[in-house]
């Protein structure tokens, strides 16, 4: 049994990871900025300081952990109005991450699992699923900050001996999901016609419980040492297939218009939203062969099972707020 610290333990992915760790017999301490929100069985360490400025000195004297899984981050948003997005993302996702990693190393933690993002590599796959050794070409402040954090952590690991493991998920979905995936579900639920019927792009995703399972492997498996892994579900649906599956699980008709991708790109240029359109209609598949071959990992849940659970949660929320 290991003792694992999970930053962001009261968040969407954090709660799923804590459940998976506890079910596997591990002790879990949740590093959070505000008390509350963690699942039963998690011991909370509340550290309200921004970007872990006090992590080194505020580390509880009795906290002896084997591994830190770092989930907390400044997250990607589509319309960021911060005057200097790169600086804002870097302050949290690079500087804050390094402070926590350095504090962990100083206090005897042996492994630091950093949950990065596929956006640290690219927004599209250019015809071949993205591998861990692809040349990184992040396109926005969020992706650049995640890539910079990866590089800085590797240097810290080389210098200090801290075992750095990097995990890059694509879009994460499941009960409790927010942002664009939730907006897509809202549109399907309301019967909004979507111009996605002709979009054949395939987009890798990962069900939150599949990601949690992969992270448990990265916490405990000696073979994960100093590795970088791409993690995703077993299949990458097209955008149209995703909408049809969501509609089926929600018990709603899928209302899609077969608008050619070229038309959508034109609309994107005219409205100044080319980047958003390109992300929607471009292929983004990830190659997960490295984690499968190195750790013997397989996603325990199919995409259909994940979408079904997500739809069940959505319907329960909708019925509660009628």
Automatic annotation (TrEMBL):
Protein name (Swiss-Prot/TrEMBL): SDR family oxidoreductase
Chain positions covered by the region annotation Disordered: 125-144
Parts of the chain that traverse the membrane: none
One family name in Pfam for this protein: Epimerase
Residue span, NAD-dependent epimerase/dehydratase domain: 4-226
InterPro entries cross-referenced by the UniProt entry: Epimerase_deHydtase (IPR001509), Lipid_A_modif_metabolic_enz (IPR050177), NAD(P)-bd_dom_sf (IPR036291)
Recorded superkingdom: Bacteria
Bias type Basic and acidic residues, positions: 130-144
């Amino acid at each position: 049994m290991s003792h694992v610290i999970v930053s962001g333990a009261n968040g969407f992915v954090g709660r799923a990871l804590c459940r998976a760790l506890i079910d596997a017999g591990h002790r879990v301490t949740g590093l959070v900025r505000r008390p509350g929100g963690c699942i039963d069985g998690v011991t909370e360490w509340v550290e309200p300081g921004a970007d872990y400025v006090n992590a080194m000195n505020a580390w509880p004297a009795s906290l002896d952990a084997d591994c830190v899984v770092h989930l907390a981050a400044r997250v990607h948003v589509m319309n960021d109005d911060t005057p200097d997005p790169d600086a804002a993302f870097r302050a949290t996702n690079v500087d804050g991450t390094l402070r926590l990693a350095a504090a962990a190393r100083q206090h005897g933690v042996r492994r630091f699992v950093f949950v990065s993002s596929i956006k640290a590599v690219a927004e599209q796959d250019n015809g071949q699923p993205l591998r861990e050794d692809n040349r990184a070409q992040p396109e926005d402040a969020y992706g650049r900050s995640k890539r910079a954090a990866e590089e800085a952590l590797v240097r810290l690991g080389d210098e200090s001996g801290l075992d750095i493991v990097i995990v890059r998920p694509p879009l994460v979905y499941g009960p409790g999901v927010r942002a664009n995936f939730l907006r897509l579900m809202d549109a399907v639920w309301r019967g909004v016609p979507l111009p996605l019927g002709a979009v054949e792009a395939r987009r890798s995703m990962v069900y939150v419980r599949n990601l949690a399972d992969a992270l448990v492997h990265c916490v405990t498996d000696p073979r994960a040492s100093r590795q970088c892994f791409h993690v995703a579900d077993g299949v990458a649906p097209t955008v149209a297939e995703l909408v049809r599956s969501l509609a089926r699980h929600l018990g709603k008709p899928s209302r899609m218009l077969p608008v050619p991708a070229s038309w959508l790109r034109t609309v994107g240029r005219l409205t100044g939203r080319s980047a958003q359109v390109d992300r929607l209609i471009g292929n983004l598949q990830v190659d997960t062969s490295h984690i499968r071959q190195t750790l013997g990992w397989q996603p325990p849940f199919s995409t259909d099972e994940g979408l079904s659970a997500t739809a069940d949660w959505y319907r329960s929320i909708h019925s509660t707020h009628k």
